[in-house]
Amino acid sequence: MSILVYTESDNGQFKKTALEVVSYGKAIADKIGTTVTAIAINVNDTSELGNYGASKVLNVSNESLNTFNAKAYAGIIQQAAEKEGSDVVVLSSSADSKYLAPLLAVGLDAGYASNVVEAPSNITPFTVKRTAFTNKAFTNTEITTATKIVGLSNNSFGLVEASGSATTEDFSPSLPESGVVVESVDKATDKVTIADAEVVVSGGRGLKGPENWGLVEDLADVLGAATACSKPVSDLGWRPHSEHVGQTGKPVASNLYIAIGISGAIQHLAGINSSKVKVVINTDPEAPFFKAADYGIVGDAFEVIPQLTEKLKAFKAQNA
Amino acid sequence: MKFLLYLLCAHSKYFDFYNYLCFLLKLYSKKQENMKILVCISHVPDTTSKINFTEGNTKFDTNGVQFVINPNDEFGLTRAMWFKEKQGASVDVINVGGTETEPTLRKALAIGADAAIRVNTEAKDGFAVAKELAKVVTDGNYDLVIAGRESIDYNGGMVPGMLASMIDANFVTNCIHLEVEGNNAKAVREIDGGKESVSTTLPLVIGGQKGLVEESDLRIPNMRGIMMARKKPLTVLEPTTSTTETNSVSFEKPVPKGAVTLVDADNIDQLINLLHNEAKVI
């Protein structure tokens, strides 16, 4: 019996979510008295995982895996789980992990709970709390199968350092044939993604037009934030769909969410509800967003945001 | 080929004959392609719904809730209509649920699907739903299954992938563009921070979302569609499994938020101070 965590990487480096799933796995392992094994694919240096509680890392090195492939990756994790006799497999909530999770679940005859936000409240029956109704509620879900898969919501558990070190073992699983071939990947490598961002700066119709998005981008630059937008903005074509956050767009679970000129429709608030601290800047004091926010400024974004950007720049320079 | 026909007929009184031949050609090509599509339809609370629970927070309170086609599924259904109109595909829709979901299936018929199937059991978990769908897809020899990447009620996000795995079909999720030509498909998938173009083959299962068609392409059923939908077949099948893997035992609502701290627009320093010292997020 052990816990297996899939530690995602990008260009040979672990993503932050990798450290979070290890921390989460360690919490379960401590509860049931076992150890954490991590499975990593094409990572240069895996030693970091020991600092968060992994005792063993299975490292797969194979150039054909440089591009993500759901079926192949699910096959690898399945073989690692079988080799380790793992009862619990922990994944993140990245687009890739959510893609492979159901394939892995069928392969392992395992029940799968996605969007889990806390360590299991109970081991027998295995019970986890997950978001439902697109963040408008939570459900306590029992996984009743022998093997369990937990998809941990990004940024919900946090990083917990542990003293220890991990041994690394080369792992060469067989790769299933995949019927889906990646032809091209179009990804901005210099921009932080909404899924990984600690801070998200988001604009709404209050910004009046796409030509004013420099305001949002400048503020995001200072904060190292990802940019996002409300549904009307993506529907109007001011910003790409990939930036649309809300119930039918992307969920946001950042530490800080700054909403500029967004009134706060119920669908939008649902999508960003998992963010820890919310700031709203809007001219209309009656905007529903003020009821959901932690901090608010009633004011004109065109005046407030340039000032905020400048002052944050000075603040960052001082605290660097 | 159309052009040759046009040359043959263009000159003369045979112009009608050209149209007739085109019609025959269309029928012929329809026969050639005739892709069978199944669109999975979840019956979910409208996005504006307030979410409440009853029976000691163990049941979702449907009182006063308006149910709709799951938005992610509706983008897929609309794309399927394109395949029907442009490529002669047949489009069936399916839901796993009780009789209360039938109006939602009728709406899909009114939008233009040819026939509907309802598997008569409560959708208890993603695994059980995928299992029922797998049976229908295998028995019905469907080439393409379009589901939403997730439903907006339980957000499990597992049914399309599990289904693909069970029937050994190819699978693309977060799909924002799809084209099918013969047995080959090209799709675009949204990834964290960008997108990815893939090629694959039928049989194929898609987890769809906005982008598959635009919001403005969505169709509101018209009166004729609604009248026709009443006469279209809605087949009720009995479930084949009762096995589940997960079990939603209770619900909770988020803890109500404290009141917002308002900062004066002329006092931005205070906001920075609060974010740094109180919230500790910068």
TrEMBL record, chain A:
Protein's organism: Winogradskyella immobilis
SUPFAM superfamilies linked: Adenine nucleotide alpha hydrolases-like (SSF52402), DHS-like NAD/FAD-binding domain (SSF52467)
Pfam family, one: ETF_alpha
Annotated InterPro entries: DHS-like_NAD/FAD-binding_dom, ETF_a/b_N, ETF_a/FixB, ETF_asu_C, Rossmann-like_a/b/a_fold
Family indicated by similarity: Belongs to the ETF alpha-subunit/FixB family.
SMART domains the UniProt entry points to: ETF
Domain of life: Bacteria
Lineage: Bacteria, Pseudomonadati, Bacteroidota, Flavobacteriia, Flavobacteriales
Domain Electron transfer flavoprotein alpha/beta-subunit N-terminal: 3-194
Protein name, entry field: Electron transfer flavoprotein subunit alpha/FixB family protein
Keywords, alphabetical: Electron transport, Transport
